[in-house]
Specification:
The structure holds two protein chains of two kinds. The mean pLDDT of chain A is 87. By secondary structure, chain A is α+β, with helices and mostly antiparallel strands. Chain A has 15 helices and 14 strands. Chain B has a domain at 2-260 and 393-406 and 425-479: Amidase signature (AS) enzymes (Alpha-Beta Complex). In chain B, α4 (104-111) links the parallel β2 and β3. The chains are: A alpha+beta, B alpha/beta. The A-B interface holds A 39, 42-51, 78, 80, 82-84, 87-90, 139, 266, 268-270, 273-276 and B 80-81, 87, 89, 94, 97, 99-101, 103, 198-203, 205-207, 233-237, 313-314, 316-317, 320-323, 325-327, 336-337, 340, 360, 363-365, 368, 372.
Amino acid sequence: MEYEAVIGLETHVQLKTKSKIWCGCANEFGAPPNTNVCPVCLGLPGVLPVANEEALRLTTLTGLLLNCTIAPFAKFDRKNYFYPDMPKNYQITQYDRPSTLAGYVDFEFSGALSRVRITRAHLEEDVGKNFHFERNSGVDFNRAGVPLMEIVSEPDITSAEMAYEYLCSLKDILMYGGVSDCDMEKGMVRCDVNVSVRPKGQQELGAKIEIKNMNSFSGVRRALEYEIRRQIEVVSRGGTLIQSTRRWDDVAEITEEMRTKERAHDYRYFPEPDLMPFQPTESWLREIAQRVVELPLARKQRFMREYHLPAADAQTFVWDVPLGGYFESIAKQARNPKAVANWVINNLRAKLTEANASLPELRFSASSISELADLVDSGKISSKIAQDVFGDMFEIGDAPGKIVERRGLAQVSDTAALEQFCDQAIVANPGPASDFKAGKVAALNFLKGQVMKLSKGKANPALVGEILERKLKA
Amino acid sequence: MLNALTISELGKKLAAREVSAREATQACLDRIQQVDGRVRAFVSYDARDALAQAAAADQRLAAGERGPLLGVPLGIKDVISVKGQPLRCGSKILGQFVSPYDATVIQKLRAAGAVVFGRLNMDEFAMGSSTENSAFQTTGNPWDTSRIPGGSSGGSAAAVAADECVAALGSDTGGSIRQPAALCGCVGLKPSYGRVSRFGLVAFASSLDQIGSFTKQVRDAATMLEALSGVDPCDSTSVPQPVPHYATSLSGEVKGLRLGLAKEYMVGGLNPEVRLAMDAAVNQLVKLGAELVEISLPHTDYAVATYYIIATAEASANLARFDGIRYGARVEGADPTELYSKTRGAGFGPEVKRRILLGTYVLSSGYYDAYYIRAQKVRTLIRADFLKAFEKVDAIITPTSPTPAFKIGEKADDPLQMYLMDIFTISANLAGICGISVPCGFTPSPRLPIGLQLLGKPFGEETILRVAHAYEQATAWHKEKPPLS
């Protein structure tokens, strides 16, 4: 029998705010333990939370980026459970009235477009971090109260690879939107994975297994590969799976059972009485709508469509947003956007890296790049000469036309002059000339090179080829 | 006897520089020495710190600064954070915890120049009506120290009644200011929900808790309220409602004011002497020109049940942080779960455990809808009852407590009887409205104070202060002192 996997992901992302969600402590990674703390995020007796408005804005912004409905009424709830990393022994989260609902993410997967629906994206607080030493344990509460967004997907994912691609595109979207830095090394993105298997074609879902606390996308992929294989093995042997929570052991590369449904937590959610429900106003929403950026996939598709770029070039401009912006500022007026893209990607980017410089520091005006491309396209200069011109542009900042004129680099297309150079080359190189006549086509390139040398690189290579061939075949 | 003065009396003397804040504070400390062995209102106090604050107030007075609370010694219930002072909430579980920050109300009082001192005894985590649930001591009622002072702010009420401080702060979740004020013969004001910041008040039930005052007269309650009120950026549930100069509402006039008598409050369990005092008070107010209107609060019967679901549900989460991990007492265990259960098993008293269990139960999966959700719905109805009544009346008049102070230990084994001590006060917290208790007489023998409660609209403190003040001016109950010395 053939089986299929049904996968849903709960992705936790730390929001890029200056301060924590309920207090003024810095939201920053890497400070010495328990230095970014105050009575509020330590849950000392008597303190109260006050919601960080930027965290609410970023949650709404995420909702917009993920095509969600923004709830006109959202509230916070307490999720009760005891754990040493939890200062209050309840986590403030959004249970039944989350800020955003019912969206989707489109992404490229195995050569086509895939869609995973988003159930909700809601706001909650992060907890501290436990450390275990030889003889005792400690908790660092610097992370406690960092705003955390939980993005819950529908079970639309069908393979480990698809889960991986979904996570990557989700990360791109959130980084793009300025919602999170998504730095995996700093634990800014963590994932709970829900996976079950069922015979292909069956409607009913299999027992849901949750794998908790994954902190790398490749880990998610490997855990899913293992877990799907394991579940299929169990059911195809006639065994039964029960709803349970498992842990991924990254070293042994296996999942292990933590607890089963019977021992599942009862979180006893109830509305957080210390915070008022949140009802965004029209003007508040408008302000956030202005922060919506074009998503990576949309940008890629638009670059391909509007500027006729190949996918790889478009992708480069998706990854490097400023470079893409620079390209676009030229390409809008350019006759040959593809040529402009080549210059920007192949030459400009390399030069910038080499000079350790950035776009705003460029000496030449952006239009110089399209002018340069036009000079090549019109045959005014050869592409080889164009490289030199570009080098000068980069160093001095002059317009390419001016450089060509000053340095006398205009391509020689005057046939009389070229005929003369060709005659000289043939006379000076009788060997290759007779080789070509004898059928050795490659010999022509040698002679062409000689002509270019004689013309100091300015000869129009296409014309030179034609003339040489005509003369040698005569 | 500077300690026996009211805020306004002492304030005048301080302003005239007839006496110093240091003398007033010393008088309170001396009085504590003299009577607190019997009253047991203070769990602890820091005499040196109090005198240092008094000296600082004297400097401000010398520099020409004036203010109604400048130099006035105030006692603080052990549930409100005062920087550098112990914060134990009448519980063992906080161990030797010292608060590293000032509650918003304490910041306000400090800014006003008050001398904030002492930790006043209370039922553990404000859960109780007699102060017998304190892990440290049982406070005696100054009128008869073999009797309870009421609760949960029993220490605050007793300290004010016994003149151990000029006024005190308490907290009221279901009557914890008004009921002990009634039983000890002082004025207790519970402001409307959102009037006073809760930041720094250790939460019992977040949606019900309010900080308020114990004073020796109504005018002082107005002074305290003005100092404590106002929106606080640290408390999202505080309301940006302007703070009036409450003392100006004390006109002494009640002519034309409509006072509501709820027929549901004429309950069988009402002590006949309380009933008599209440009737006399009503007659007095009518004599002063108030108009009586019968009103109905049809959901009154459900208030106690509703309260014990909502309050315990919130408490079960609020008290979860006392786990022995970060602060307070700890009993070690082999793993976190054992550490939790040992710490909490040893740290909490029986009433707190009872309420945590009750709250945990009503929030449990499968019971949540039947208890918590239903209680919230009833709460909405109770609030609607009051808002409807306030369309017809300016204030509602009730006894504060169905009985006067009972003997220590008398109801200790009967939590349900104890819960009924709050039947007249609980609804105000559920509805978020304000309430005040003023002395309205005594039982003949033994001579124990009886309190009259006035309930007002949300943010209608001016009206109840006005009625309470007019009544107080027409009677002499508030001038009587307990037979302590």
